[in-house]
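[SOLVED] Need 3D model of a four-part complex

Original post:
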Amino acid sequence: MQKVVANADAAIADVPDNATIMLGGFGLCGIPENCIAALARKGVKDLTCISNNAGVDNFGLGLLLQTRQIKKMMASYVGENAEFERQLLSGELEVDLIPQGTLATRIQMAGMGIPAFYTPAGYGTEIANGKEVRAFNNKMYLMEYALHADFAMVKAWKGDRYGNLVFRKTTRNFSTSIAKAGTITIAEVEHLVEPGELDPDHIHVAGIYVHRIFQGTNYEKRIEKRTVRMNGK
Amino acid sequence: MQKVVANADAAIADVPDNATIMLGGFGLCGIPENCIAALARKGVKDLTCISNNAGVDNFGLGLLLQTRQIKKMMASYVGENAEFERQLLSGELEVDLIPQGTLATRIQMAGMGIPAFYTPAGYGTEIANGKEVRAFNNKMYLMEYALHADFAMVKAWKGDRYGNLVFRKTTRNFSTSIAKAGTITIAEVEHLVEPGELDPDHIHVAGIYVHRIFQGTNYEKRIEKRTVRMNGK
Amino acid sequence: MGLDKYGIAKRIAQELQDGMYVNLGIGIPTLVANYIPEGMTIMLQSENGILGMGPYPVESAIDPDLINAGKETVTVIPGGAFFDSAESFGMIRAGKVDLTVLGAMEVSENGDIANWKIPGKMVKGMGGAMDLVASAKNIIVAMMHTNPKGESKLLPACTLPLTGVKCVKRIVSDLAVLDVLPEGGFKLIERAPGITVEEIRNKTLGKLMIEGEIPEMSIN
Amino acid sequence: MGLDKYGIAKRIAQELQDGMYVNLGIGIPTLVANYIPEGMTIMLQSENGILGMGPYPVESAIDPDLINAGKETVTVIPGGAFFDSAESFGMIRAGKVDLTVLGAMEVSENGDIANWKIPGKMVKGMGGAMDLVASAKNIIVAMMHTNPKGESKLLPACTLPLTGVKCVKRIVSDLAVLDVLPEGGFKLIERAPGITVEEIRNKTLGKLMIEGEIPEMSIN
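Solution:
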């Protein structure tokens, strides 16, 4: 059982041009910083990226937008990125906007081997165009398909050599579902530990889903909106 | 926020005849012992019970079979119960056998608000009779519906006053999904604790799904097949 | 003058009941958290994976691993729980969240809502709004009664791309509280302090139903 | 005499590769765990919610909260994980389990399997078998070549109610190793020690393909 690789560059070495990549994170919270940096270094092109957001101009997936490595973006919200807007309006970037719950669940279903399911989100809106509509118990639903990826990349707080992962606070977000939806799943972790160090009752992603794992470095963990309360409140 | 009730009798006091009840557990592991005993005491009748198994002759759901309180059983495997066999063959008991993964996923989908989904389990078998068959990527699937219950009853290891639950080892089994599928969900716990005592990263069922919770008593935790290894192996 | 955004938030807070699970959208809805009545336990859901979201952190407690759906740094209360996005939208879709409060650009008299896209301008994406409005048991819209040009945002039919259909139950605006009737139409429930029925009528383009005396809101 | 159940388990253990995730059914398949080659890490999945299932516990370590899918008390190895049944069948359905070994009452020459029901006798239920056979990437059936009456269990078509269709890839019986060909038919791969091709031919009712010299299994 050899899943540990040296670093992000080794982990993503075989990602080809035109690959479909899913990346964990919500905004900049819990994104696979090391993998994104390595993808930028490698210069792999024409990527289809699936992630809830597209980073900001100079961090997260914004880095791969700056270098024009992304051909198509599938996301639920991309409002924090001016370069994204420019590429979208100029036609350089293809975008598929998906309701957040539908996106999360389509990814989850891929990891569960369920090819299609029904959700009410988007019924009666432009999102329903071209989709099968069906009533269950007098409520209308859209049929949505599972969403897979060639490579799934996530960042966890702790992980062991067998690929078991534990997340911290709201970094779990899309990452646990994404980790299960990749043909090849790569996990970068803040703390790489030995099998047995993680409590088997507390593992968020079992190692069976994870193909490569490495100890990440230099986490910036940039904060998008630093909000504080006054001492009085 | 008042979810704590005194005991099992109080928790199940309003379960009417003909109710549909889901019960957590796999075999006798992690079953809601206190709730089952209270249902037997209350003598509520004509229940439809949804649970992976039907207990053994004198424990678990077997207790409610002895008292003839169960009208219909939905399960994946019922092979450990002679009274069950007798009632089935005599026509006293209605039985719906469901593949274990389909059963688990139908329950899970109820808690996710997804009314129907596709699974390959049972395609080409008698389980497929009357079901919609559909191909995705050249593989055949059956459409299955979410499975709800009037009451869901689970046993957790620890729970807090807000209904957050933590399970231990393989007691998680069907219980986490069942806890999310009840119109009224009742949790009995080995240790009732204060909010804040459970690590929010380690909660298996968030309190939003749980309507009533109580400190259980006198857990027997009967073992179905006591298997040990010799010291040498 | 009608209510300011704090007044709208205060009025919405009167809808809360002890033990409710509530999802508050970005903007005015977020302010509702500041006016939860004393002694009430309200569990705030943030769709990126929190139940029991607490207030913003003090400086020393800022944690980049703990943000809300608006990407702001937040805290979690004792008894809170973290989970993933799939689970979060599962509980939303299953109707476990008791109340959803969100903003809108337009609401129609049959309860349709438009709040995610203005064609021709930048499209940022719908985020979780479509999932929330398609599934929430109870949806209250918090918004100004008119847009910056003074045009009514309560319309016979939405002109902007829809977020969801027949889902809004109640609107709390700077001028009034209105219910969307199952058969269609805005039923006037309360007036903002100092606002006349006449002004509300003038600023409501969709069908407005006024029955009897309309009480004034009591906002403290 | 062909192999006994331990011999069948030993032969199946030769199919294991380091790092595999494996689900072992009740009966002979369970015995395979005893013959995992030295130095190999095999992660056993139990569909009630374990990855990294370990051996039976010593008396003092018995824990009623830790059982396998056969309801036996077991242990978990360092690096194992617990999860719920929905997750367990999710990973099975998604093809994450590399190898499934299970018993059968009948296998047909196109890979259909029957192992859950005998009409007229008691029906105990299919448990997880239908899910496993519908989704597993690689399915090996471990069984006796003939039933107690001496009739072949390798048939042109199953006579018992099916568990799954076109799913069995390989059969390891007391007499032989056979592959189910994609186009149909049992291809003889190996003979059990001392068993002749003639005997296998006589006890295989479905189409049997024999190409060239058939080697004898090497079982130690």
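Edit: Residues 175 and 192 of chain C are 5 Å apart (CA to CA).
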